[in-house]
Automatic annotation (TrEMBL):
One GO MF term attached to the UniProt entry: palmitoleyl hydrolase activity
Organism: Toxostoma redivivum
Protein name: NOTUM carboxylesterase
Similarity-based family: Belongs to the pectinacetylesterase family. Notum subfamily.
GO terms, biological process: negative regulation of canonical Wnt signaling pathway
Taxonomic lineage: Eukaryota, Metazoa, Chordata, Craniata, Vertebrata
InterPro entries attached to this UniProt entry: PAE/NOTUM
Amino acid sequence: SYYLKESKGSRRWLLFLEGGWYCFNRENCDTRYDTMRRLMSSREWPATRVGTGILSSQPEENPHWWNANMVFIPYCSSDVWSGASSKSEKNEYAFMGALIIQEVIKELVGKGLSTAKVLLLAGSSAGGTGVLLNVDRVAEQLEEMGYQGIQVRGLADSGWFLDNKQYRRTDCIDTITCAPTEAIRRGIRYWNGIVPERCKLQFKEGEEWNCFFGYKIYPTLRCPVFVVQWLFDEAQLTVDNVHLTGQPVQEGQWLYIQNLGRELRNTLKDVTASFAPACLSHEIITRNHWTDIQVKGTSLPRALHCWDRSLHESNKNGKAPLKGCPIHLIDSCPWPHCNPSCPTIRDQFTGQDMNVIQFLMHMGFDVQKMAQQQGLEPSKLLGMLSSGN
C-alpha cells in the first residue's frame, strides 16, 4: 500500500520511505508483530494521512517541495527495504521491502510519474538506509521501462549508520542491543536481502552487510544523494549501548559520544551534499520544525534547494558550486547540542525544556574542566556555548 497526493501542475515527485528499525529472527519478529503491528501489517493503517515536513503541502512548512506529487510508502517489511522473500513453509513472515518499492514505481508510472522530470526518493532512519540501497535500482527500473528522462535522486535522513565498536559489548539478543553489523548480517540471511550490484562487487561473498553502511555504499552509487545526519544520532547511540537516562554520564561515555561525532564527521567529508548538525536527535525531514535547524547559518530546506539548483546547473554546463548557496554543511563544534538551533531537549523526569547549558550540565559536563582543556575562562566558554560558536 502507499498514500498519494497528486499535484497535477508539477513534474516533481517525492517518494518517501518510512523508517522504524527492523527484526532479524523469528523471536524478535514475533515480538514486533505483537507490539508494533502497524510496522508489519497494513490491516490497521488509516485511510488518509497528513504530510508533514518535506511532505507538507503548506509553503510555510515546506518552502521548496510543497507543490510536488507526494507519495508516502509505509514500512511493513521490517527488512530495511531490502528483502525479496515471500512467506514460505520455513518462514512465517514475508520480507519484500525491495519489491514493494518496485511495485509502487510500476503503478505510479500510470498515474503521471511517466512525465516526471525529477523523482526524489527520500526516507528517514531505516527508510534513509533504504534510499541508499534502492536509489540506483529505481533509476535502472525507470530506464528499463523507457523513461530515461527522469532524474532520480536520493535524500537519506538519519540512515547513515556506523559499524563502530559499541560502548559496551552485548550479546545479540534483541534489535536494540545487537551490534548493527551482527543484526544486519543475520537480517540479510533471514530476509533474503538484496544489495546493489556495484556495492556487492566491492566485498567478498557473505560480506554484503557492508552495503547497509552509508560510508561504504555511497562511493558506489550513480544517482546523486543528499545525506542528512545528526552527528549524535540517538539510534546510533542506542545500538552502541550509550543510554542517556537522565543520570549524568560517566567520563568514558562522554568521550565515546564526542568521538562518535568525530567519526561521523569524518565519514561525511567526501559526501558532496550533506547536512550534519551537532545535535542529539533522530530523523528530521518529516518533522514540522525541520525548517528551524541551521548549520553555519543555512537551513535544511535552503540547502536542499541549493542542491537542486546545483544539479540543474551542472546538467547544463558543469559550473563550479553556486556562490552563497552551500550544499556541504557539517557542524564543527564538538558536543551534542553545541549548535543553538538544535531541537529542544526535554528533561525526561520533569518534562521541562532545557537549554544547551542546562543539558550539558545535566549530562555531567564539567564546565571548569572543559574550559581548562580549551584554555578558556569558564565564563567565556559558557558564553560561547549559549551562542553556539
